Amino acid sequence: MPTPHKTRSGVMRNLNVQPRSPASRVMLVCFCIMLTFALACSACGGGSEQRASHDPANEWGSPDIYDDFSGTNPEFQLDNPAGVAHGWYADGRFNITYPAKGWWTWYSGSSSAMNFYVDVVVYNGDQCLDRDAVGLLYRYIQGSDSGLMFGVTCGGGYFKGLTGWLGAGNGVCLFTNANPSGPTDLDCSAIWEHPTSSHINDGPGAANRLGVLAQDNQITMYINGHEVDSITISPTVPQYGEFALYLGSTQPDNASASFDDFSVWLEPSEGP
Fold this sequence. Notes:
12% of the residues lie in helices and 38% in strands. The protein folds into two domains: 4-41; 56-266, Sandwich (Jelly Rolls), CATH 2.60.120.560. The protein is mainly beta. The protein has helices at 4-15, 22-41, and strands spanning 65-67, 86-90, 93-97, 103-113, 116-124, 133-141, 146-153, 158-163, 172-175, 186-187, 207-215, 218-223, 226-232, 241-249, 256-266. A hairpin with a 4-residue loop joins β7 and β8.
């Protein structure tokens, strides 16, 4: 794809081949302004693979932790060949498949943090159903298999919750309010209604950039650079832990997800 500079230059050369009437020149000026704006914003449109101009991560420079999923310096654990779920690096992404309905699976990374901004590009599976889910865990503790979760569904919803909270069993649960303080503030039924956002790209193969800003007990969630939700968590919720990538399956087969461009900024100086 040509750079905006080359494209604009090429258009102007073509348009200046012959004289134009005043009305035509006005139309051409308007066209050029519109074209310039479109080209300038082509990188910030949906914010899926490339960060949007309004993305909070633009304030912090290069990340402290980064995995481009080339597999040369993997942040996340590799697949267990004996397992039912499969996770592996290929084609510049981390991929997860899981052939069982109603189950979640995740692969944890090697880095831990308390206060951070993390983001990752997630891709819905090519045959996803509405409630198939993809996202990340943060402040994840392997020993208790517990941590906070944020992700999106194939149907255009998003998920804010956790797994393994004391008193709530080991299932995946949805936060039911913005100030969860105990198991009574969770829905662990797995039949919850997902919140929705116009900033989510939905459907098979769709890409979304998920971001989480964690500052002590304040958690703010982003989709494609837009703030979509926030919660204030209880001290009983994990405050420090690893990151993990997850897939939630609602079909007996063909459930899959992919990930790219995982980045973490540690102790960001201030919120966006």
